[in-house]
Design goal:
Elements: E1 3-8, H1 17-32, E2 37-42, H2 53-60, H3 68-85, E3 89-95, H4 103-112, E4 119-122, E5 125-128, E6 134-140, H5 150-161, E7 166-172, H6 179-196
Parallel strand pairs: 1-2, 1-3, 3-6, 6-7
Antiparallel strand pairs: 4-5
Helix pairs in contact: 1-6, 2-3
């Protein structure tokens, strides 16, 4: 069964523009993939704990030597990675906060970037291990910053680091400028959904 993993990061949860675009894509994808399923992870509703020294040590401690607390931490991280492994498509709804991604998404990335599990180091450099997947990213911004902004580059670089190189980023910018700019940006993004899905 085909599976889509939808990751929402807007602090407005389902009401956020990025979440609504991700929802629209998921609905269109389901229409084209009867019998498939969508899993949603809302990082605003259920934030991932920030990475601290104890959590990092849980990741690096050999499995057979972990305490019960460390095992719970590592198991939760593995659950997040397994969601990606089991999915054919990832859809991320990402607003711009202070010129970057929401901190909840950065924390999520911290938990799925695991040496030997989601990537490995080789003589030729790092190799992502979560291959064969497509990612569709909706980035919403109040202002206009362009497709080459560092926020977009960061998301693309991280996904590539874990092995996801088929990445489509759809920007909806100028949402805070005026009603006309907002409507045009959202309409353009929705038009692209039909093409990409």
């Amino acid at each position: 069964m085909a599976q889509l993993l939808k990751i929402q990061t807007s602090l407005f949860q389902n009401s956020g523009q990025s979440s609504q675009l991700a929802d629209a894509f998921a609905a269109t994808w389901l229409e084209k993939n009867p019998g498939a399923r969508v899993i949603t992870r809302d990082l605003a509703a259920e934030p991932i704990p920030h990475l601290d020294q104890d959590r990092f040590q849980a990741f690096t401690t050999p499995a057979e030597e972990r305490t019960a607390e460390q095992k719970a931490v590592a198991d939760f991280s593995q659950e997040l990675i397994d969601e990606i492994k089991a999915s054919d498509v990832l859809v991320l709804g990402i607003p711009m906060y202070n010129f970057s991604v929401p901190s909840t998404l950065s924390t999520y990335f911290d938990h799925i970037a695991r040496a030997g599990i989601s990537f490995r180091y080789t003589a030729e450099g790092p190799e992502g291990l979560l291959k064969g997947k497509k990612a569709v990213v909706f980035i919403t911004r109040g202002g206009v910053y362009g497709e080459e902004h560092a926020q977009s580059a960061y998301v693309r670089q991280f996904l590539g680091f874990i092995g996801i190189h088929d990445v489509e980023i759809i920007h909806a910018e100028g949402l805070a400028l005026n009603d006309e700019s907002k409507q045009q940006a959202l309409d353009s993004a929705r038009e692209q959904i039909a093409q990409v899905a």
